[in-house]
Design goal:
This protein has 181 residues and is mainly α. Helices cover 81% and strands 0% of the residues. The protein has two domains: 4-73, no CATH class; 101-180, no CATH class. Helix 3 (24-34) packs across helix 4 (43-52). Keywords: Membrane, Signal, Transmembrane, Transmembrane helix. Residues 1-27 form the signal peptide.
C-alpha cells in the first residue's frame, strides 16, 4: 500500500515536492483549501489524513491545487526576477558611485581563471590526484563566470525562456513519435 506522500506525488508531484522544502506550509495550506478544509496548526498532518481517505473527486481537487500552486510560484518567480534585477542594478550603481574597481578585478580574475583552467585541461594530461580538484574548480569558475556575465550583460531570463521553448518543442516531438508508434 502506498503512503500518503506517494499518493500525492502520483497525483500532484509539484505539491509533493514542495512539501519537502521551505514552501511546505504554503503547499499544504493551498491543498487543504482546495479540499474545502481550513488549515490548522499542523497543515501537513491534516493533509496526510485527507490524502489517505481521499475520494477520486478529492484527488482531482488536489491536482487543481497543484495547478494553482504552480501558477502562484510562477507569479512569485516574476517578482523574484524583478528583485534580482534591482539587486544587480544597485550593485552596478554602487560600483559607479564609489569608483570601486574590486568587481572589475574579481570579474577579470574569474574570466582569466576559467579560460586558463580550460586551456590547461585541454593541453595537459590531468594528474590522477588533482583531477577531481581541477574539475571542481572549473565547475565553480563556470558558475562564477555565469554571474559575471549576468552582472555585466544582464540576466539570463531570456535564455531561460529560450530553453523552456526548446524543452517544450522536444516534449511535443517525443509525444508525436509516441503517438505514431
Amino acid at each position: 500500500m502506498m503512503d500518503w506522500k506517494q499518493t500525492l506525488a502520483a497525483v500532484a508531484p509539484a505539491l509533493a515536492t514542495a512539501l519537502g522544502g521551505p514552501l511546505a506550509g504554503t503547499a499544504a495550506s493551498m491543498a487543504l483549501s482546495f479540499l474545502g478544509l481550513e488549515p490548522g496548526e499542523d497543515p501537513q498532518a491534516q493533509l496526510s489524513a485527507a490524502v489517505k481517505s481521499a475520494t477520486p473527486e478529492q484527488l482531482f481537487q488536489l491536482k487543481q491545487a497543484e495547478q494553482a500552486f504552480t501558477l502562484e510560484m510562477e507569479r512569485l518567480g516574476v517578482d523574484l526576477q524583478r528583485i534580482h534585477a534591482a539587486d544587480r542594478d544597485s550593485a552596478r550603481k554602487r560600483e559607479m558611485a564609489l569608483k570601486d574597481h574590486a568587481p572589475k578585478m574579481l570579474a577579470l580574475l574569474i574570466v582569466l581563471g576559467f579560460f586558463s583552467i580550460q586551456w590547461w585541461i585541454a593541453t595537459h594530461a590531468l594528474p590522477e590526484g588533482a583531477r577531481d580538484l581541477l574539475l571542481r574548480t572549473l565547475g565553480a569558475l563556470d558558475a562564477a563566470l555565469s554571474m559575471v556575465l549576468a552582472y555585466y550583460f544582464g540576466s539570463s531570463a531570456g535564455q531561460d525562456r529560450h530553453l523552456e521553448g526548446v524543452a517544450s518543442a522536444s516534449a511535443s516531438t517525443r509525444e508525436a513519435r509516441s503517438a505514431g508508434q
